[in-house]
Specification:
Strand order of the largest sheet: 2-1-3-10-4
Number of strands: 13
Shape: globular
CATH superfamily of the largest domain: Periplasmic binding protein-like II
Distance between the termini: 50 Å
CATH class of the largest domain: Alpha Beta
Largest sheet: 5 strands, mixed
Number of helices: 11
Strand content: 15-25%
Number of domains: 3
Order of helices and strands: EHEHHHEEEEHEHEHEEHHEEEHH
CATH architecture of the largest domain: 3-Layer(aba) Sandwich
């Protein structure tokens, strides 16, 4: 089927430096594919960017970073939106869909400190900053002696809080630091055995109207391997109805033709954590993810979710 040619694409994006980098990254790919194409950014300050003094889990989760971008598309102020896949919820509003997932950057968490070269070097009672319940769960499980403190704001804000001495170390996504050319701040990447990444971490997605014209155009930018792995991870969120309020981690990767898959869920204090590991063929990845979800549920994941919801209220 032929579609009306696309001559101009407006990209809805958050205003943070990292979000703008991601939007410009997509814009560059669009222009490289069609030098005649006009591409413009539509920067938007979202609710998630405005409310910086409250943990995300208490104010509605990472969906706060996305809603206004979808409103801009619905109001015909933008044609597509660019997201960090770890911020993208299980379902999309009616009329919208995910058209492409770009090649993944390093998905791991980064240990950032001015005084300590390794996570294991942190002294007892050291102050560690993170806004992620997932990171909090895993760090607390490994080092219950540490003082884990909330850390909100964009990457630069978080680094400035470390630099002024509020924390002994902070934990950030490695991908964001690399993309902002701040890789020198990374002391080391956490091994997934210690801190399993967030679902979709390191990947950038393109959302658009659920129309064949847009889906066909944007699907050319989809990275098949990344998309396969991220979609496998997202099945865990779908089955458990996970969100920012829930310490869930899942990580799929291809190695020597095999898909390796890990998932974790637990309480933020790290005293309860359910883990699952499996491997198999790419063709079996969806079934693997469902088996992982079944195992987590059998071991008490829904009870953990219920308790977390009670705590939230």
């Amino acid at each position: 089927m032929s579609h009306t040619p696309i001559k101009h694409i407006r990209i809805a994006t958050r205003k943070s430096k990292l979000a703008l980098w991601q939007a410009e990254h997509v814009a560059a790919k669009l222009r490289a594919n069609d030098p005649e194409l006009e591409v413009s950014l539509v920067p938007i300050v979202t609710q998630g960017d405005k409310i910086l003094d409250t943990p995300l889990a208490r104010i509605g989760g990472k969906g706060l970073f996305i809603k206004e971008l979808e409103i801009a598309m619905a109001n015909d102020e933008a044609d597509i939106a660019v997201h960090s896949m770890k911020d993208v919820g299980v379902t999309f509003p009616e009329g919208f869909t995910l058209a492409a997932i770009l090649s993944r950057e390093t998905p791991f968490d980064a240990f950032v400190s001015n005084d300590y070269a390794q996570f294991t070097d942190l002294p007892q009672g050291a102050k560690v900053g993170t806004c992620s319940l997932r990171r909090r769960m895993q760090i607390a499980a490994a080092r219950p002696d540490l003082e884990l403190l909330d850390l909100r704001g964009n990457v630069q804000t978080r680094l400035s809080k470390l630099d002024r001495g509020d924390f002994d170390a902070i934990v950030l996504a490695s991908a964001g630091l690399i993309r902002l050319e701040l890789e020198n701040r990374i002391r080391h990447h956490f091994e997934p055995t210690l801190s399993l990444p967030a679902i979709g971490q390191g990947a950038v997605g393109i959302e658009c109207r659920n129309e064949p014209r847009w889906i066909d155009y944007l699907s050319a930018f989809n990275d098949a391997e990344t998309a396969h792995c991220v979609r496998t991870e997202r099945i865990i969120n779908e089955r458990l109805q996970g969100s920012c309020q829930v310490p869930i981690a899942a990580y799929a990767r291809l190695l020597d033709g095999q898909l390796l898959f890990d998932a974790r869920i637990g309480m933020p204090d790290g005293r309860e954590m359910i883990e699952y590991h499996t491997s198999g063929s790419m063709e079996d990845s969806e079934a693997m993810a469902h088996r992982a979800a079944d195992y987590l549920i059998e071991q008490g994941a829904l009870d953990i979710l219920a308790r977390l919801q009670e705590d939230a209220h």
